[in-house]
Design goal:
Helix content: 40-55%
Radius of gyration: 15 Å
Mean pLDDT: 90
Number of strands: 5
Structural class: alpha/beta
Order of helices and strands: EHEHHEHEHHEH
Strand content: 5-15%
Strand order of the largest sheet: 2-3-1-4-5
Number of domains: 1
Largest sheet: 5 strands, parallel
CATH topology: Rossmann fold
Distance between the termini: 13 Å
Number of helices: 7
Length: 177
């Protein structure tokens, strides 16, 4: 698997549920980036994040994600973490992990309005293309979501853009090929 910079980078994906982070993660995979997905870790553990889970289950999943990410960074790989990155303290933790493992942290914010999120949630309820998040859980997430602050220097992507447009931005902004 290619590396794109020395040192490697840790790309932290941030955005509301249904913003398109997993599609963005797929774009990054095609660009040779290794992806650590908290949803995939939940699935491996037999859990569904859309149903609302006890904090201890989220903590365990986060611990697994941190360990997997650290191992990949130590191997010199550029890694993307696919999660909501909602609270600032989690983004700060990923930033610290990157620096601890001699990687450059990059925050990528996929900006989707709450209205767009609800529209996509309703469409998913009909199509069933992914596990449906319970409405109360979605509304709690929307109410608690903390968009990145200017001092975090995020690369901002519009959730209404196409994956091809995201790819072009990743190539232009981050030098991924």
């Amino acid at each position: 698997m290619p590396t794109f910079s020395s040192p490697p980078r840790l790309l932290v994906l941030c955005g509301r549920s249904y913003a398109g982070k997993s599609m963005l993660a797929d774009v990054l995979r095609l660009l040779g980036v290794r992806v650590v997905s908290l949803d995939e870790i939940m699935e491996r553990r037999g859990l569904s994040s859309g149903d609302g889970l006890p904090l201890r289950e989220w903590q365990r999943t986060h611990e697994i994600a941190v360990a997997e990410t650290a191992e990949l960074l130590d191997a010199g790989l550029t890694v993307a973490v696919d999660d909501t990155g909602s609270p600032r303290f989690l983004r700060d933790g990923w930033r610290s992990l990157a620096l601890k493992h001699s990687a450059v942290p990059v925050l990528i914010y996929l900006d989707a309005s709450p209205e767009l999120v609800r529209e996509r949630w309703r469409a998913n309820a009909t199509a069933g293309s992914r596990h449906q998040v319970v409405e109360d859980v979605l509304e709690e997430h929307l109410a608690a979501f903390e968009p990145p602050a200017a001092d975090e220097h995020p690369v901002v992507l519009d959730a209404l853009q196409s994956p091809d447009e995201w790819r072009a931005t990743m190539v232009a902004e981050l030098g991924l090929k």
